[in-house]
Write a structure and sequence with these properties.
This protein has about 450 residues and is an alpha+beta fold. It contains 14 helices and 16 strands. It has three domains: about 180 residues, Creatinase/prolidase N-terminal domain (Creatine Amidinohydrolase, Chain A, domain 1, 3-Layer(aba) Sandwich), CATH 3.40.350; about 110 residues, Creatinase/methionine aminopeptidase superfamily (Creatine Amidinohydrolase), CATH 3.90.230.10; about 80 residues, no CATH class. The strands form five sheets. It has a six-stranded mixed β-sheet with strand order 8-7-6-3-9-10, with helices on both faces. A three-stranded antiparallel β-sheet has the order 11-14-15. The chain is globular and about 70 Å long.
Length: about 450
């Protein structure tokens, strides 16, 4: 037994023997399905590359592939996508890269949203190919991943073996990611319509950037480039717009997760407001919010939070959070958690001292009345889209501000006071793309 294993086992025995210490239930919002007895029977570390019912029954139900989402829902998503495509079509989607802060210091991994939406597979260095065919299922699915590698797993944790990948994720085949370039090259020449997307990057985008989300160690960059260059513009079709429209409509399972994410963020923000006092650093409020979200089961924040005191709130993406809150200042907090892959996003403004000054209350009341009026319009019967709601928000704000003494010339409101948009959709990630002209629907 290694020294590290011996220390871990000794620590576990000490903790287990401390029966006199009452259990602390911290994650009050976390999903707990397993009994204490079944949790005790779970072996550590897991042999899978992500939480599954077999390894994490306290997080997932038996029929769920990811927390809150059944395996059958992923199957329905793929079927709906394939059914929308013309004959002789193939879909190619790849995982997100591991992102690094500096050198070999990596961030906590987050899967590419579209890839995860189709597969539920959370391991890096992976890809999926969906081939439309005439079977009852309607397609053939191949997942590519790293597979088991004991030497690498000692450093980075478990990966799922190919047999389990095929079984658990309902793939027809599971292969090594090393086979992906050759498989892709042979397949794309068989299909008239190749639905795939160039991954976003800073600077000029081109077809050559498609699979650079995969680790450079998997295969030479030039091999990917040559594969993509073999695709004519007439055969290469964008995948993202199709998935964006699908992702815009949330299932009942997705809605439950999103409500839980909103509840976690809302509770954390309310408690952070009560924690606020003059003299406290903005960074302490940001940390308090994140701590409370994690305590309630959130896996990460959905984005870098804005905690802006006083004039700092005039900077839309103020994420420095490095000033001290002063007496009589207003504080703007724009923050949200991610829970089981789904983001929440809240923005609230409140007085640091707990009491509004007269001018603060007057201005706050105008914004609040506009917000309440717009919420009443967010129904299917109103037949409004996001762009139309934004225009109504501008009209109502201009009217309300005029009533309290603002003398706004044409364009002043959106140029100076309200240069951003009313809002944006949320779901898997903070801003899945959607057409602003689509009407709101339940």
């Amino acid at each position: 037994m290694s020294l590290r294993s011996a220390l871990a086992n000794t620590t576990a025995r000490v903790i287990h023997s401390s029966a006199s210490i009452p259990p602390i239930r911290l994650c009050t919002q976390a999903r707990k399905y397993a009994t204490e007895a079944s949790i005790d029977s779970i072996s550590k570390p897991s042999s899978y590359g992500q939480p599954l019912f077999q390894s994490h029954p306290h997080l997932l139900k038996r029929d769920e592939l990811t927390p809150g989402i059944p395996a059958e829902e992923y199957e329905r998503r793929r079927k709906a996508l394939i059914d929308s495509l013309p004959p002789n079509s193939v879909v190619v989607s790849v995982s997100a890269p591991i992102k690094y802060m500096s050198g070999s210091i990596f961030y906590k991994y987050r899967q590419a949203s579209d890839f995860w939406y189709l597969t539920g597979f959370e391991e890096p260095d992976s890809a999926v190919i969906l081939e439309k065919n005439s079977t009852s299922r309607g397609y053939r699915m191949t997942i590519f991943s790293v597979g088991k590698d004991p030497a690498k797993e000692q450093w980075d944790g478990a990966r799922t073996n190919f047999q389990d990948v095929a079984t658990l994720f309902k793939a027809d085949h599971a292969q090594s990611i090393n086979d992906f370039p050759a498989q892709l090259r042979s397949l794309i020449n068989l299909y008239s319509n190749v639905f795939v997307d160039v991954q976003p990057r800073r600077g000029v985008r081109s077809p050559k950037s498609l699979l650079k989300y995969l680790s450079p160690a998997v295969a030479p960059r030039s091999e990917y480039d040559s594969i993509l260059e073999s695709l004519s513009n007439s055969r290469r079709k964008p995948l993202a717009p199709l998935l964006a429209r699908m992702r815009a409509t949330k299932s009942e399972h997705e809605q439950r997760i999103m409500r839980a994410a909103a509840d976690i963020s809302g509770s954390a923000l309310a408690k952070t407001m009560r924690f606020t006092r003059p003299g406290i650093p903005e960074s302490a409020l940001a940390a308090h919010f994140e701590y409370l979200c994690c305590l309630s089961g959130s896996q990460r924040l959905a984005y870098v939070p804005v905690v802006a005191s006083g004039p700092n709130a005039l900077i839309i993406h103020y994420t420095s959070n490095n000033h001290v809150v002063k007496e009589d200042e207003m504080i703007l907090v724009d923050a949200g958690c991610e829970y089981n892959g789904y983001a929440s996003d809240l923005t609230r403004t409140y007085p640091a001292s707990g009491t509004f000054t007269a001018p603060q209350k007057e201005l706050y009341s105008v914004v609040l009345s506009v917000q309440k009026a717009l919420i009443q319009m967010c129904t299917e019967s109103h037949r409004l889209n996001l762009y139309e709601l934004h225009r109504k928000s501008c009209d109502l704000l201009k009217q309300g501000l005029g009533q309290i003494g603002f003398q706004l010339r044409t364009g002043d409101l959106e140029r100076i006071l309200y240069p951003h948009f009313l809002g944006h959709p949320i779901g898997i990630g903070k801003s899945p793309p959607i057409q602003l002209i689509d009407y709101l629907a339940s």
